[in-house]
Amino acid sequence: MMDQEVVQFLKSLILPPGGIILLGLLGLMFSRRFLGRFLIILSLAALYMLSTPFVSEVLMTGLESYPALDDKAISESGAGGIVVLGGGRYSDAPEYGGDTVNGIALVRIRYAAWLSRKTGLPVIPSGGIVSKKDEIAEGVMAAEILEKELGVKVAGIEQQSRNTWENAFMTRELLAKLGIDRVFLVTHAWHMPRALGMFEKAGVNAVPAPTGFVHKDPERAGFGFADQATYGDWLPNAGALLKSYFALHEYLGRVWYQFRNWLG
User: Fold this and answer.
1) Which long-range contacts (CB under 8 A, 24 or more apart) does 107-111 make?
2) Which of 67, 109, 212, 256 is the most exposed place for a label (fewest CB within 10 A)?
3) pTM for the complete prediction?
């Protein structure tokens, strides 16, 4: 398996803003030719488009396909536990005296805790160490927050996985030891299709429990809201670029996992 740090490096060269910068640099190298000028214009156009709320929301439309759980779906789920996926770390946090989870992970943890209090089910955090310089697994940090800060019971911790693929297969082994055959799967709405696909491939019976939705207004989904878009939807901002990054990361992840399946 490819080293995870190599994967992170390659992603930084493909996804924005790294991919856009690389495209612009290639254009500068050949700036005296038509190809070079075309690449410069293309990089600037890509940076602008991906930084607009309109484009970022369109990219997210194809990802947030699972709705939020309602009370009926929760009560009829038949789940015996709640698996919450890691989302990254806040390294060397001075206010906490060391590493802790980042904002993305905290959104997932909070919803898992809310779901646990509503159902009485225990939580199983999943997430390991991605970088060699890190010492504490994301799953361990999540468990500490759940138990010590949110007062939620943790049934077990999966702390070896480095990506969504490993989340699924390693959590399956833990669930088998715990005797849990059906779980709520908590992650961001835009990450849910890839995550649920991996858990189903691993043979885990999971109920999608998405959180952190980008789309809350159905009328703003896809190109359908083009006629209602305001000038603000076309003004570039860093938040929209970040959403575009997450969306493209998911699409790239799907392609990568399909390639891994093809390789067997």
Assistant:
1) 107/188, 107/211, 107/212, 108/84, 108/186, 108/187, 108/188, 108/211, 108/212, 109/84, 109/142, 109/145, 109/146, 109/150, 110/150, 110/211, 111/84, 111/186, 111/209, 111/211, 111/212
2) 67
3) 0.92
